[in-house]
């Protein structure tokens, strides 16, 4: 291909992209998703999601230890297998065959509770850091370590309990258990309750773990997005995880469970941060964003200015940003 043909092809491609960019900037239904994805990438939210998934992975095993120990204390031996079978339907990565022979042990319970509390606090702190980063909160305005720990305990007691209840409801309804004859109306009601509960949990999480003056209305759009997607993951967990785990076992053997767990928590973290990003884009009107030639729109400039202001480490520090006047439109 000659140089002239290459330049002509590049020119036509740029003209096409410019037309697409113009269309998405003129329609809010397009510009908002584009702005959310662009800010998600600019904030490197995948790294934030990895941090949350890492600590969530460490929290799951102490919780299993507590569960098995409590079963040893309060559940007769002839019922343990049935109970674990129902739990494994809701949490597919729990294999009842590997949980046999456990009894009630005070030391195991204490160890499980302490490690679960430690890893749970780490999960909440990582999530809080991610939310504050998404909102571009300056470093000097972020909470101290004691404040983070106190808020983490509050979240574990409230949102953590609600998350367990939501997971149990979704798993119970979608597993087709015969303990109750729910019928189609009962199943729909169960799904509706689980979705509403998930949305409420995200509303609470977005408000409690964000150190910025925001209202329930400000976080409701992202809570609806994350809540619905989270419910879909909960409902399809048995199918998705079991199929992925089976494929991974053929390649990774005993490490397949670890890989699948990390992947699962990472996916949940991505969904959570997408909802948080949607809230920021709508609250701060960070749309429309330019696909080419950025910074070009006012939203581009506001976004870049907030990125710079986030790096302020002292309350008296001031960060100023400037752009050539011809870049604004």
TrEMBL record:
Keywords for this protein: Cell membrane, Membrane, Transmembrane, Transmembrane helix
InterPro entries documented for this protein: Virul_fac_BrkB
Membrane topology according to the record: Multi-pass membrane protein
Protein origin, superkingdom: Bacteria
Membrane spanning residue stretches: 48-75, 102-124, 152-173, 188-210, 222-241, 261-282
Subcellular localization: Cell membrane
The keyword Heme is annotated on this UniProt entry: no
Protein name, per record: YihY/virulence factor BrkB family protein
Organism in which the protein naturally occurs: Amycolatopsis deserti
């Amino acid at each position: 291909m000659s140089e002239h043909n290459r330049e002509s092809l590049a020119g036509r491609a740029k003209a096409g992209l410019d037309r697409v960019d113009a269309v998405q900037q003129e329609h809010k239904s397009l510009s908002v998703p584009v702005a959310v994805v662009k800010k998600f990438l600019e904030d490197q939210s995948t790294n934030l999601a990895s941090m949350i998934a890492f600590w969530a992975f460490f929290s799951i095993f102490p919780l299993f230890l507590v569960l098995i120990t409590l079963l040893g204390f309060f559940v007769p031996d002839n019922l343990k297998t049935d109970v674990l079978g129902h739990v494994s339907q809701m949490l597919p990565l729990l294999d009842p065959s590997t949980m046999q022979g456990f009894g009630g042990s005070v030391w195991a319970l204490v160890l499980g509770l302490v490690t679960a509390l430690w890893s749970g606090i780490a999960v909440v702190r990582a999530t809080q850091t991610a939310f504050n980063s998404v909102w571009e909160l300056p470093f000097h305005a972020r909470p101290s370590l004691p404040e983070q720990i106190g808020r983490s305990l509050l979240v574990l007691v409230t949102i953590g309990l609600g998350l367990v209840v939501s997971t149990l409801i979704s798993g119970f309804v979608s597993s087709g258990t015969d303990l109750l004859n729910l019928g189609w109306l009962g199943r729909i009601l169960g799904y509706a309750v689980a979705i509403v509960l998930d949305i409420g949990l995200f509303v609470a999480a977005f408000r409690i773990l964000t150190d910025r003056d925001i209202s329930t209305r400000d976080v409701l759009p992202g809570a609806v997005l994350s809540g619905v997607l989270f419910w879909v993951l909960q409902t399809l967990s048995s199918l998705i995880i079991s199929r992925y785990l089976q494929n991974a076992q053929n390649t990774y053997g005993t490490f397949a469970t670890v890989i699948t767990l990390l992947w699962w928590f990472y996916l949940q973290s991505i969904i959570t941060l997408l909802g948080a990003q949607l809230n920021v884009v709508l609250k701060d009107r960070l749309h429309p964003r330019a696909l080419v030639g950025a910074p070009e729109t006012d939203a581009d400039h506001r976004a870049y200015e907030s990125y710079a202001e986030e790096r302020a480490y002292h309350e008296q520090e001031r960060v100023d940003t400037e752009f050539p006047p011809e870049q604004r439109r």
